[in-house]
Every structure is written in structure tokens, then in C-alpha cells.
Amino acid sequence: MVVKPFSHPIPSRPLARAAAGAARRVMTDPVPPTGRGDAGFTLLEMLVAMTVLALVLAAAAGALGFLGQGFGRATDRVERVEQAAVARDVLRRQLARGFPLVEGGVDDGRYVFTGERNALTFVIAEPPAPGRGGLSVARFTIEPGEGGDRLTYGQRRLAGGEERTSPLLDGPYRLSFEYFGSLGPAQPPAWRPDWPDRRRLPLLVRLRISADGRELPAAVAGFRADAERGCALALGEGFCRDFVDAPP
Questions:
Q1: What number of CA atoms fall less than 13 Å from residue 92's CA on the CB side?
Q2: What is the residue-level pLDDT of the chain in tens, covering all 248 positions?
Q3: Closest to 207 measured CA to CA, from 230, 227, 178, 180
Q4: Which of 33, 93, 179, 185 has its CA at a distance of 20 to 30 angstroms from the CA of residue 199?
Q5: What is the rounded distance in angstroms from the CA atom of residue 126 to the CA atom of residue 147?
Q6: Are 124 and 157 spatial neighbours (Cβ–Cβ below 8 Å)?
Q7: For residues 183 and 196, is the Cβ–Cβ distance under 8 A?
């Protein structure tokens, strides 16, 4: 019997290279950090981070509040402009329906018209409709309101009855009426804060509106002032329409 000598198997070259590489990595890789790095944030660091976060949130809240206030002010301005536009439209529409009604006779006739800084009263002709029609008295009044002036419109039948009123403007407004025309042959037409002569009618009526210290577009409308002397049309006892010639 032939006895073969004992021998170790010789590993292949690729396996040997892999084993050598693993050994080198074990020797050269850094040791994982221990101690403070594994413990996370300290209490002081957490307090500093929370303080910084609180400051950032406070600044963001202040910015949002400022933007909200600016948006609110812009919305208020738009609402005021829209309300002023509605008031101007109502005034123009009613003045366009103005009726030159005269109270009294030929010698002492006076127009049913009152023009003051805070009040405007005149007669309008209602269009024919069921339950309506005829002549009515329209009245615009400016009174002290909440933080400014209040403009109210009222209307009642000329023959009598309850006056219906509704607010047109109420807020931080400054309002006033003005009247344009001549009070006599020798006086040139001009804007006036009131209209004292009921024997004549003004050519124009203007409602001045201001809000937040700024002048808004005014409402300017004409009133029929081609008055004549002497009743051209009798409208019942004590009333007539128009005169023949302008009174002296």
C-alpha cells in the first residue's frame, strides 16, 4: 500500500485576494463614534433651538398680521367707494325726475325746493304704476353718524302720507351739498353752500364726499331750472307747474 503524504489544500487566487481585502478593511476602518455623539442633543442645545424657533414663529405671525390688516384696510376702502357710487347714482336718478312745482300764486309763487348744506328737498314725478304715480317729495339729509356723516333718503307722497326712509351712506364720510347758479341778473353763476332764493332753481346740485382724508368723486346732477312765470299747468289748489318768464 502506498501512503501519500498529508498536504493542505491551496486556496485559489481570487479567494485569497478577497480574504486579504477583508483583513485590510478591518484594520483600516475607523472606530464608530461613542460617548457624546451617541447621546443626541444636550438640554442647552434644545433650549437654544426652541428659542430660535419661537422667534421665527413670532416674526411670521407678525408678518401675517400686518398683511391681514393691510388686506382689511383695502377691503374697507373698496366698500366705501362702492357705497359712495350707490349714493351718487340715487341722487342723480332722483334729480333727473325733479319736477318744478310752484306753491302760491303768480306774484308770490315759490318753488317747492330747499337747498341747504346738510339737506336737499324737491318734488319728483313718479312714473305711472299700480299703487304709485303722481308727485312725491324727495328729501336727502346729512346727519352725524358713526365716525362721520350719515346720508339718508326719504320720500313721501305730496298729498300726504308716511315718509319712507333708507340710509345711503354711514361711516367715516364727510358730506355736504353745494348748488350752482345765479341769484340774480347781475350775479354770475357760482357754487354756493346753500340756495336761499326759492323763486329760482339752481342749475346744478353737487354732493361732495370725502373719506379717510381723501376727496372721492362728487355726484353732480342738473335740476330743471327753466322756470316760467304764471301757471302754465294748474295742479290743484295752491299749486301749479312753471311760471311765465323768470321772476324779477
A1: 10
A2: 444 554 545 555 555 565 556 555 545 555 555 455 555 668 777 777 888 888 887 777 776 666 555 545 556 566 777 888 888 999 999 998 888 887 776 566 788 899 999 999 998 887 655 455 578 999 999 999 878 999 999 999 887 888 999 999 888 889 999 999 998 888 899 999 999 988 888 999 999 998 878 888 899 998 765 544 444 444 555 555 554 444 43
A3: 178
A4: 93
A5: 35
A6: no
A7: yes
